[in-house]
């Protein structure tokens, strides 16, 4: 992640007069059509969640006692295809450049069933089945002055305090205004206001019911190896969220380096949100416990040695509850221990991670890579009062075709085994194995 520290801002602005002497992106514009691009991105996803220890997908209740007496299926299994069309125009020439972006997001159900549905790949019909096809179209108008771009409309955003998720077939989209400025070399400033968030399975502008989210951020590269960032968000009726990051890379020798990555979130909850959720609990509707704040941070150290990388990470959550996200985008969890299934973000949770990566290019197989990691978390505060514990093991392998007609076609296999004790199973999820096969093929038409 790119990053910044406020104490360096004054120095960066002082140096800005010399940076502005160089040509800006707008001054080098070739035109609306000449700089345009049109891409087609195809993704096929098979996803299976196999519930363990007697748990299942759809509960069968006793008609008299309403107790769960079994499950329709002990697993969820679905396959789908996503097709994204993305057109990005260039900017018109002149002091103020004008352009447009447009996209079409379509999903096609290849395999699913009422008893196997709900992996988040498809919307749900009135009969409880996955929707056969879905299509969402959107666009945005954009303006550029020098190296500053203002965009309004439907867009994809990757900010630590508002990040659209792309972990299934189609990505989330957000509607609003976003300003990004790169006038000073190494410094990026951003600000935005968003009033709608469409889920990965929704075609409405705001099916996730985001009233408004105001965000600001800054990132700065102090040197080629040291960077920092600070961001803040105010999500109406939910919370105010603050994020910071420091990243330092220490070269040791040829093909050897140490990297340190620190991330932290501070969330202050809106009083009306807490009172509303607490009132729901009083009426027998599950909600959140009365709470006011959360702080969660993670620190990862990675040692790279040629084709090998070894990572050790620690993450700590504290405050009145665990770290929350989602209404501000399903990808708003830029933490080192956020992995395939769990984010290890429970209330008061402490977690460790060990990870190993291998790039086979050094062994004569470019495009092939492997990753495995193990995480364990404990000291989690649960609703029962007993200590919660969890652990997860991940394995991934990916191959990207390097040349020929199928260049950039990739195959990725992901597998996770997640287990927790009874106290955390009751609050979070039943034990499960999560397997995903992802095939992606990007095509650059223009």
Automatic annotation (TrEMBL):
CC terms in the record's Gene Ontology section: membrane
One protein family per Pfam: OprD
Keyword terms, alphabetized: Signal, Transport
Gene3D superfamilies with a match to the protein in the record: Porin
Gene Ontology MF annotations: porin activity
Signal peptide: 1-23
InterPro entries: OM_porin_bac, Porin_dom_sf
Family of the protein in this entry: Belongs to the outer membrane porin (Opr) (TC 1.B.25) family.
Protein name: Outer membrane porin, OprD family
């Amino acid at each position: 992640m790119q990053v910044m520290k406020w104490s360096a801002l004054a120095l960066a602005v002082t140096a800005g007069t010399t940076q502005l002497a160089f040509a800006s992106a707008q001054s080098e514009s070739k035109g609306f059509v000449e700089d345009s691009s049109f891409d087609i991105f195809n993704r096929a996803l098979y996803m299976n969640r196999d519930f363990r220890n007697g748990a299942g997908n759809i509960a069968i209740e006793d008609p008299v006692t309403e107790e769960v007496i079994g499950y329709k299926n002990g697993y969820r299994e679905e396959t789908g295809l996503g097709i994204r069309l993305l057109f990005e125009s260039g900017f018109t020439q002149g002091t103020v450049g004008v352009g447009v972006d447009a996209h079409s997001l379509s999903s096609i159900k290849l395999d699913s069933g009422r008893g196997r549905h709900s992996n988040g790949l498809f919307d749900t019909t009135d009969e409880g089945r996955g929707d056969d096809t879905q299509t969402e179209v959107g666009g945005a108008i954009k303006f550029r002055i020098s190296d500053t771009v203002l965009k309004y409309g439907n867009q994809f955003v990757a900010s630590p305090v508002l990040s659209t998720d792309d972990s299934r077939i189609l990505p989330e989209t957000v509607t609003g205004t976003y300003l990004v400025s790169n006038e000073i070399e190494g410094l990026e400033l951003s600000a935005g206001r968003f009033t709608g968030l469409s889920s990965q399975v929704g075609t409405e502008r705001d099916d996730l019911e985001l009233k408004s989210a105001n965000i600001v951020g800054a990132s700065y590269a102090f040197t080629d190896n040291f960077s920092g960032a600070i961001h803040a968000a105010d999500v109406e009726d939910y919370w105010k969220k603050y994020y910071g990051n420091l990243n330092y890379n220490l070269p040791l020798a040829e093909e050897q380096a140490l990297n340190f990555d620190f991330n932290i979130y501070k969330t202050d909850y809106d009083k009306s949100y807490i009172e509303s959720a607490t009132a729901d609990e009083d009426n027998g509707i599950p909600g959140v416990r009365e709470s006011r704040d959360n702080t969660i941070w993670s620190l990862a150290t990675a040692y790279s040695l040629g084709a090998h990388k070894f990572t050790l990470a620690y993450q700590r959550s504290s405050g009145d509850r665990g770290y929350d996200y989602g209404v501000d985008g399903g990808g708003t969890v830029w933490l080192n221990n956020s992995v395939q299934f769990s984010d290890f973000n429970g209330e008061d949770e402490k977690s460790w991670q060990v990870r190993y990566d291998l790039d086979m290019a050094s062994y004569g197989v470019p495009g092939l890579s492997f990753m495995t990691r193990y995480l364990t978390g404990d000291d989690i505060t649960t609703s029962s009062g007993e200590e919660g514990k969890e652990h997860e093991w991940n394995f991934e392998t990916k191959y990207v075709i390097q040349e020929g007609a199928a260049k950039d076609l990739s195959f990725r296999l992901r597998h996770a085994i997640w287990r927790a004790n009874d106290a955390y199973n009751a609050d979070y999820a039943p034990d499960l194995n999560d397997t995903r096969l992802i095939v992606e093929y990007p095509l650059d038409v223009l």
